[in-house]
Amino acid sequence: MFVRRLELVDFRSYPAVTVEFGPGCSVLVGPNGVGKTNLVEALGYVSTLDSHRVAVDAPLVRSGADTAVIRCEIVHDGRSLMVELAIEPGRANRARLGGSPVRRARDVLGALRMVLFAPEDLALVRGEPAQRRRYLDDLLVARQPRFAGVRADYERVLKQRNALLRTAYLARKVGGGSRDLSTLDVWDTHLASHGADLLAARLELCAALGPHVAKAYDAVSAGQGGASIAYRSGVDAPTTDRTALSDALREALTAARNDEIERGVTLVGPHRDEVALSLGELPVKGYASHGESWSFALALRLAGYELLRAEGIEPVLALDDVFAELDTGRRERLAELVGSASQLLVTCAVPDDVPDSLGGVRYQVEGGTVRRA
What we know:
Elements: E1 2-11, E2 14-20, E3 24-29, H1 36-48, E4 68-76, E5 79-87, E6 94-97, E7 100-101, E8 114-117, H2 123-126, H3 129-143, H4 147-173, H5 184-220, E9 227-232, H6 242-263, E10 274-279, E11 282-283, H7 290-310, E12 316-320, H8 328-338, E13 343-348, E14 361-366, E15 369-372
Helix pairs in contact: 3-5, 4-5, 4-6, 5-6, 5-7
């Protein structure tokens, strides 16, 4: 799989730009702030329908414009497919696949499989659990796009359940008496069903990722291994059987009912779980040095990339301003690890930061333009 053409209209800093890519390595070179990251961010958005830099879509639309458009031509198994997304903050995004409109924007997920590593990924190691859960869920969707629907269904049920609990909480707080919470049983059933599907998939994914994380960290850190990843659920989850997990979630929700009513929020479910990252016997968060944290974050992305490849998916790999953070040894080791990618996109401010062994095509980014050097 590779991206042959990227066209942006009113996306971030670009009024309009078109870039032609090919298989192999492409290096986007230019000073900081000229829009290199905007290009890989746009591709990442096609892949996940999210930005790795911001939580909302408004900053993606160029100042003064109402809509940003991303058009991306993807080549896979010799066939070309055009994906088009229109981003309109405050409204549902519109999408076209192969020239035809689709009912939901998420129907384009799976057209572009991409793994993107960026400096923001340090939050995977140092940030809150939500960052690590998102890492798993994005990878789940890359493996099986149907999980975009599972996530959406779970979040919809969670929102409705929280609204009911919040209403009851506020009524009690102002002395309005108790509210009818009989419908909580219905929401419990839905939450347990969707939650079990998501929880089982995360458990399976972490088990599959483990060897790849250990191998990638060992390679990046030059033999200073011991990296591991484990899923920590708030419910007893010794199995990945969906029925057993659904029953366990229902039991946990029942046990937490009084506490949830007192606090007005759902306290049980995959939205509360943690992904434990460790080096040896110690957790990475709070104990690892900056270099170790950076290497671990990179190992997580490389592990995801290698897992997809092992399962017959050949994703695009993008490294956004990565080599500048590494010493010479780590640069060379990383170049060796990623050099065989079907398509590798690299951004850098200084061309010398990228090892010559990667070769590839250089693009100069400046003044809102992208030209082949």
